[in-house]
Specification:
318 residues, 4-stranded antiparallel beta sheet, 13 strands, 35% helix, binds ligand DP6, Ribsml_uS5_D2-typ_fold_subgr, Ribosomal_Su5_D2-typ_SF, lyase, lipid biosynthesis, EC 4.1.1.33
Length: 318
């Protein structure tokens, strides 16, 4: 039996967003963030040591050339874990979400890879340490080590040893996420490049770190108290504020499509009619609805009237 490591991790959606790095090499964020993981959507990875040669990277059953961006980034991350005994790896990774569709498959990808490394090398590290390692691959991956809600601490130290995520303990069966798919094509500007341009050129960004940390506190508290209204309102405001900084970047970064705005209007209309539903958006055109399980029919019907399908996910379903 040849040795191998297995890892699987869910995608996560930030309720209070990470946008901007204070250290590009260590992947340290300018602000903390908080997320919810989506069970059933994510990445499964099988990792095997190779005695010689280059990494072999297989994504959804297809071997990638070494010059493909995805493979290059993965190999760069694996550089941290090579040794004389294990100079290269075979990585077989399967995503149950479309790559780069704004559903953060890089987050579940690096979290699953770190779990596979832990399994292969028998480290048995605590989740918070694995979170710190996943952060090197992709910032938001630090949050995908956990089911349910996770809080990624900004940290203060220059070496980043205090910048990792941990679980926020709140079992909330009514909490529901709705996925509104506008477009699942590869995004035009990736988050790594996008946030860098924002930090460098956006005047509005100056107010972001303070707002983001304040929203993070409010949302974490609302999660503990299961105060849905406060959580939803703050998360939607936080996402729109992040997108305002993207739009005010030069050259401008606009992830929205006409269908994204149409979907926002359906959400606002539902709220006017008394249904408590909110949305958040990441570096892509798709909306993620923040809602309660009891409102699934109302939300499904309102979107169906516009010919749009919503997929519901209950992160705390038994
Ligand atoms: C808008 O984690 O993808 O989804 O650290 O450079 O890999 P890198 O960026 P990434 O950025 C995520 C940005 C976001 C907000 C969030 O998930 O918090």
């Amino acid at each position: 039996n040849s040795p191998q490591g297995l890892g699987s991790a869910p995608v996560n959606i930030a309720l209070s967003k990470y946008w901007g790095k204070r250290d590009k090499v260590l992947n340290l964020p300018i602000n903390g963030s908080v997320s919810i993981s989506l069970p059933g959507l994510g990445t499964e990875t099988v990792l095997k040591p190779l005695q010689t040669g280059q990494d072999k990277i297989v994504l959804n059953g297809e071997q990638l050339g070494a010059d493909v961006t995805f493979a290059k980034r993965l190999s760069l991350f694996l550089d941290y874990f090579r040794s004389d005994a294990c100079p290269a790896f075979t990585v077989e990774t399967v995503n149950s979400v479309p790559t780069a569709a704004g559903l953060a498959s890089s987050a579940s990808g690096y979290a699953a890879l770190v779990l596979a490394l832990d399994d292969l090398f028998g480290w048995q590290l605590p989740k918070t340490d694995l979170s710190l390692l996943a952060r090197f691959g992709s910032g938001s991956a630090s949050r995908s080590l956990f089911d349910g809600f996770a809080l990624w601490h900004r940290g203060e130290q220059e070496d980043g040893m205090d910048s990792f995520a941990e679980a926020l303990d709140s079992h909330w069966p009514e909490f529901c996420i709705g996925l509104v798919k506008v477009d699942t094509k590869e995004k035009a500007v990736g988050s790594t490049v996008g946030m860098q341009q924002t930090v460098e050129t956006c005047d509005l960004y100056k107010s972001w770190p303070e707002q983001a940390e304040r929203n993070l506190q409010t949302i974490s508290q609302a999660i503990i108290e299961q105060n849905f209204g406060t959580l939803g309102k703050t998360a939607e405001h936080n996402a729109l504020s992040m997108h305002a900084t993207m739009i005010a970047t030069w050259p401008p970064i606009v992830y929205w499509q006409p269908e994204s705005v149409a979907a926002m209007q359906i959400v606002w209309q539902l709220r006017e009619q008394g249904t408590e539903v909110y949305f958040t958006m990441d570096a892509g055109p798709n909306l993620k609805l923040i809602m309660q399980a009891k409102d699934q029919d109302k939300v499904r019907n309102a979107f169906a009237e516009h010919g749009t399908q919503v997929d519901f996910i209950l992160p705390f379903a038994e």
